[in-house]
Amino acid sequence: MIVWLIDPDESDPSIRWQVMRDLADSPEAEWRAERARVETEGWGARLLSHQDDDGRWAAGAHFPGDYASGGYEDGQPWTSTTHVLSLLRELGIEPTSPRMRWTVEAIGSNCRWEHAGQPYWEGEVEPCINGVTVANGAYFGVDMTPVVERLVTERLEDGGWNCEAEFGSVRSSFDTTINVLEGLLEFERATGGTPESKEARRSGEEYLLRRHLFRRLSTGEPANDKYLTLLHPNRWHYDVLRGLDYFRAASALTGAPPDPRLEEAIEHVRRRRSADGTWPLDHSPAGRVWFDVDDGPGQPSRWLTLRALRVLRWWDEAGAGAGTGR
User: Fold this and answer.
1) CB-based burial of residue 271 (10 Å sphere; 0-12 exposed, 13-18 middle, 19+ buried)?
2) Is 129 exposed, middle or buried (0-12, 13-18, 19+ CB in 10 A)?
3) Angle at alpha carbon of residue 40, lines to 38 and 45, rounded to 5°
4) Long-range interactions of 304-307: CB distance < 8 A, separation 24+
5) What percent of the chain has pLDDT over 90?
6) SS3 content of the chain, % helix, strand, coil (to 5)
7) Which residues are CB-contacts of 147 (< 8 A; sequence separation ≥ 6)?
8) Can you give the pTM of this predicted structure?
């Protein structure tokens, strides 16, 4: 399976370097050399080729500059600055390269949120968008402390977040919560975090864990059948593999062992493996993209296979299933 993932003719540097680091235990010098190629080859280079002269993508922050003209019946477009930065972060592009340092500064100078014209790195009002912005900003070396402080105060009573809170919602959502958690984790990785941000992250984790990553607390039924499907790129959408990969990354940062309440989600992901050892893509969020990074629904996905294998490796090596009947 690792041979398929790192196939030099079919794979991409963004996949290969993460496989080398997380699955193949390659020497650091080797996976770092492969990572450096993300900016100049493959998907990373293609995304950079679409960058506007002023540092943005598609002349917009969350939406393309022509969004007001409509024409997006097939779904939200994913070509604007926020979504490209998120994908570059997932690819693992070197955040401190001269090109990316220029990009971060140019976006800070030239990009404004559609909501009310706020400067890009100051965030806007929706916690799901601000969570993504914190993750991207922290990854690329921006001080996101003011946005983090806002997110900390926006937790709901059940410990998570919901973009509909401004309209009266008092219950958190899986989708908003995972976006905020990933932002807080990236902030903690970059800065060490604050007591308040760490506590907020713990409360958001507990929101997901009490629900075994996909169940309603009230009835025990799946909160949304889509949470049990596997999608990529996730954009703002939640699924159980995204939740598990977050907990794996948090464990790598803090040293915390896997929580036993993750087992049901782990076993669901394990069962979704195809006979050939890969994980197939169920769907991708609809909408305009610069290009696809998967071969389509039903086809083996290198991204999903990478994420699933490293989650299962983390779980199995920790002995997390011991004594649980697995």
Assistant:
1) exposed
2) buried
3) 80
4) 304/230, 304/232, 304/241, 304/278, 304/279, 304/280, 305/1, 305/4, 305/5, 305/277, 305/278, 305/279, 306/5, 306/15, 306/18, 306/19, 306/22, 306/23, 307/241, 307/245
5) 91
6) 55, 5, 45
7) 122, 123, 130, 133, 134, 137
8) 0.95
One-letter amino acid at 72 equals Y
Angle at 238 between CA 237 and CA 243, to 5 degrees: 145
Are 46 and 32 in contact, with CB atoms under 8 Å apart?
A: no
Among the listed residues 80, 201, 77, 208, the one whose alpha carbon sits nearest the alpha carbon of residue 135:
201
The mean per-residue pLDDT over the stretch 38-45 comes to 98
The residue type of 216 is: R
Q: Residue holding tokens 């946005």? A: 147
| Residue 323 pLDDT > 80 | no
Here the tokens at position 151 are 């997110």
Q: Is 250 helix (H, G, I), strand (E, B) or coil?
A: helix
**Of 238, 234, 223, 228, which Cα lies nearest the Cα of 269?**
228
Chain-centre distance for alpha carbon 247:
12
Could you give the CA distance from residue 64 to residue 62 in angstroms, rounded to a whole number?
7
